[in-house]
Amino acid sequence: MSDTAAVTTASPFADRLLAMNESATIAMAKKSRELMAKGFDVINLSFGEPDFQTPQYIKDAAKQALDDGYTFYSPVPGYPDLRQAICDKFKRDNHLEYLPNQIVVSTGAKQSLANVIMSMVNPGDEVIVFSPYWVSYEEMVKLAEGTSVALVGTLENDYKVTAEQLEAAITERTKLIMYSSPCNPTGAVFSRQELGAIAAVLARHPQVYALADEIYEYINFVGEHVSLAQFPEVRDRVITVNGFSKGYAMTGWRLGYLAARQDIASACEKMQSQITSGTCSITQRAGLAALLGGRASADEMVEAYRRRRGLVLEIVRDIPGFKTPTPSGAFYIFPEVSAYFGRTAPDGSTINNSMDLAMYLLNDALVSAVSGEAFGAPECMRFSTAAADEKLVEAFRRVKASLAKL
Ligand code: PMP
Ligand code: GLU
User: Which of the listed residues 28, 47, 183, 184 should we mutate to test ligand 2's pocket, taking the one with most ligand atoms within 8 A of CB?
Assistant: First the structure.
């Protein structure tokens, strides 16, 4: 074989890419779109995205931004007035005082998380990820060559990791812990007491930082949203990530932010300056209008999510073998489905795991959901409840009928 042939057959891709998994949520959504394009009536409950349009007053602000000439690069960490409005939001909603230079606006909460992980995690550092976790956490830690340590909550405790579990998992190599509350995928919400206990553990380990993902803050059915940064003993070591995708139904606009100690914010700004720069100028102006409009539009959407949660739980509780905790926030249900493992499908194939079950439901019920595997919970499955009421009822009627054939 000639040298040229040897070069052309080698993989052109970097080890870091080969080690990485595609986002399972995005992969499943892609599969269902493909089936839909072929004419199948798929109900897509795999993607975690509000089905609502962005409120009109926010769209109007974007149109105005274009007319006002907001077509240039923005400062990397965001326009000063937007950063001030984010500080005002933290004060109003979370009783937290930040200065604008502690805020970094980004191209979605996903980028904010990546900024922090890429800026803070060294190869070999341990990152404790509360499990079940959102799919991208583990992959981002891998990208940074950190070691992710999944700490698994129990079904009996609504999958919430406890302070005792955390204390036992911290080692001298632990750099960061990360979690979402309200949680994607479980919908669990940490109480003040639970987060206070976690803060007390962190207070005893001054080398450990915390990445608190609060993107579902507004979608909360139990009432109080608690931020880890509210505990003074750890406040300086907590990086809070939030964004506009969920609360303001702005997924496509790509707008998120983080708040942190000033040196951490500067580090994230530096990281972002080499990768994307400031996010879209028009989006930022729309985001400013969103914040100035308060949370009334979010509260309306939350009422719909609450109603849908009720509708779905009523059907799902009737599905034999599903063990489904009641979500306290976000817009997912996350049943434990292992009762179906080992069963035989009508075509003779065996359902070995939750991936097989998700594929069976996609093909037989034309309902797409995501296997719990990518969330660190292979015995579970995630269904989004962010869809119209009648679609949800139809979807779970089909799921129930398909499962009855196994
Ligand atoms: N964190 C969690 C827990 C999420 O579910 C998502 C997905 N929307 C994100 C972060 C990223 O959100 P964004 O659209 O702002 O990038
Ligand atoms: N956060 C959503 C989800 O969990 C969007 C998909 C993604 O960004 O991975 O499905």
Answer: 47
Task: Tell me the C-alpha distance between 192 and 269, whole Å.
Answer: 31
Atom of ligand 1 nearest to the CA of 243: 15
The answer, yes or no, to whether residue 383 has pLDDT greater than 80, is yes
pLDDT digits (tens, 9 = 90+) for 175-229: 999 999 999 999 999 999 999 999 999 999 999 999 999 999 999 999 899 999 9
Domains of the chain plus CATH, in order, are: 10-53+297-403 (3.90.1150.10), 71-294 (3.40.640.10)
Cβ within 8 Å of residue 36, ≥6 positions away: 42, 44
Kindly write down the DSSP assignment for every residue of 135-191, as one continuous string: HHHHHHHHHTT-EEEEEEPPGGGTTPPPHHHHHHH--TTEEEEEEESS-TTT-----
300-312 per-position pLDDT tens digit? 999 999 999 999 9
- Distance of CA 6 from the midpoint of ligand 2 (Å): 39
**What is the pTM (predicted TM-score) of this model?**
0.95
- The token pair that represents 220 in the structure block: 């909360």
Tell me how far the alpha carbon of residue 347 lies from the centroid of ligand 2, in angstroms.
32
Side chain identity at residue 141, one-letter code: V
d(CA 358, CA 369): 6
Q: Is the peptide bond before 185 cis (omega within 30 degrees of 0)?
A: yes
User: What band does 334 get if pLDDT is binned at 50, 70 and 90?
Assistant: very high
Structure tokens at 340: 């179906």
Q: Which ligand is located closest to the Cα atom of residue 44?
A: 2
